[in-house]
Amino acid sequence: MNTDLSNIFVIFGGTGDLTYRKLIPALYNLHHENQLPEHFAVVSIGRRDKTSEQYRNELVDSVKQFSRFPFIEEAWKTLEDRIYYEQFDFSQDEGYYHLKEFLQQLDQKYQTNGNRIYYLAVAPEYFGFIAEKLKIHGLIENQRSWKRVVIEKPFGRDLQSARELNQQMIQVFTEENTYRIDHYLGKEMLQNIMVIRFANALFEPIWNHRYIDHIQISSSETVGVENRGGYYEKAGALRDMIQNHMLQLLTLTAMEPPINLKTESIRDEKVKVLRSIEEFTKETVIKNTVRGQYGPGKIKGKNVSGYREEERVSPTSTTETFAALKLHINNFRWSGVPFYIRTGKRMPSKSTEVIVQFKQLEHTLYFKEYKDYLMPNLLVIRIQPLEGVYLQFNAKQPGTKNHIVPVKMDFCQNCQVGSNSPEAYERLIYDVMKGDSTLFTRWDEVEYSWKLVDTIAEVWQNQPIVFPNYPSGTWGPKEADELLHRDRRRWWNVGEGELMKL
Ligand SMILES: NC(=O)c1ccc[n+]([C@@H]2O[C@H](COP(=O)([O-])OP(=O)(O)OC[C@H]3O[C@@H](n4cnc5c(N)ncnc54)[C@H](OP(=O)(O)O)[C@@H]3O)[C@@H](O)[C@H]2O)c1
């Protein structure tokens, strides 16, 4: 990690959705918290014709709408003065000549020492191309400065394309200077999973197959594809969610304690989890995975259309908007413990959580008489929108009878007044400036995730499916319930408030 945080933050895709909704509001929030380096400037690149003045004015609305801190004119003024718009088509060489000169001028003005963050907020097919142009035009020469690149998901469409892309990127940026964003890793509660596990005598000793029955990792959204139909048609839930966010959640939940808190030690343990996942075969894909696509239905009482009726979606699309799978991690800790993963759009509620279900005590005093009432102990790590930890256990119901009821201990991190967790992008951008890549995905993590996902995708591609197979506003196709029912288990629909009502 370096101490010289000064840099010019260069955004390719400066007029795009990600920049307006996430990057600029995150920079504003960092500025608000005095986290931006003193020597700092932003250069945003796009093709649209506008001056820096016009661009800054446009950004005001997105900061007002998307920033977690209120818009304060004076604070914004001191940031916007350092934001510049550069109009050029990045497929043309001329723009890079001018960009190089302009960045050198800004280096003088802001004393940024030649340090650069190149944030590629553009379609993935341009990542390699832009990196190569930056190299050809001398925009990544070191000369006692640092140059880093940030790339957005998706990192490839399958293992083959991810390898090709990686090959292109490593010609230009070392692994150490490549920051592959998985914005889930920037979420507060993801970072908390390690603390909860490894800083509590209450949890770590029982975090294994002797005490844990199974683990569910679930992420549901109420929205459909909205205006991202074009992208989503090529991705689907498996590539859009499972390959990255869901497998990252899995690795943090299942990994062994790292030897220390250094970036590579943590990443090494995460990779070991991915390597230990039992390989899928055609038979296990058919048996242990479920895909779905939403049809018309109701969300919060409002009629909504099916996926096939969405903009830029084929009326005969076979893209999945729901995926569920059961997998095993073949190591000593997790022997015999299934992990169930589920993600979907247009479900009844928006929520992401990890649910650890503990084994039932057998032959206890109460088991014989109360076995129908005894609920399993559950530890729920809530990732979003609510952040916190919830523990369910059994207790006696007050009264003269010996009734046993489940009760809860509920720590809600962002329910407290004044709590205002940083947005994932704030944390991640700040880490790139510091040179800390712990919360970014290393190449071998990407590689192993794609291996797993490719096997499933290939079987799915060759198996006919009748879509749509779940109405909007439901928890996915009935096969997803059966996946657990046949193991005498069930999904816990936390987002619906199922557990919280207790
Ligand atoms: N939006 C999100 O919430 C989100 C979430 C996760 C990941 N991502 C990823 O982030 C990246 C950007 O997504 P986005 O939604 O922001 O895309 P977008 O709204 O379509 O923006 C694309 C940007 O690329 C610029 N661009 C395209 N071709 C160009 C060229 N030849 N020369 C110069 N600029 C060019 C566009 O500039 P002009 O319009 O001015 O030409 C625009 O600024 C993608 O990789 C996406 O997968 C986005």
Tell me about this structure.
By secondary structure, the chain is α/β, with parallel strands linked by helices. The protein folds into two domains: 7-152, NAD(P)-binding Rossmann-like Domain (Rossmann fold, 3-Layer(aba) Sandwich); 185-496, 2-Layer Sandwich (Dihydrodipicolinate Reductase, domain 2). Helices cover 36% and strands 20% of the residues. The protein has helices at 17-32, 52-66, 73-80, 94-110, 127-136, 159-170, 188-198, 229-254, 263-276, 282-288, 367-370, 424-434, 443-462, 478-485; strands spanning 7-12, 40-46, 83-87, 116-120, 147-151, 178-180, 212-220, 289-292, 294-295, 297-299, 302-304, 322-328, 338-344, 351-358, 378-384, 388-396, 404-412, 470-471. An eight-stranded mixed sheet has the order 8-12-13-7-14-15-16-17, sandwiched between helices. Strand 5, helix 6 (159-170) and strand 6 form a beta-alpha-beta unit. The longest helix has 26 residues, at 229-254. The mean pLDDT is 93. The structure holds NADP nicotinamide-adenine-dinucleotide phosphate. Residues 13-18, 21, 45-48, 89-91, 121-124, 152-153 line the site of NADP nicotinamide-adenine-dinucleotide phosphate.
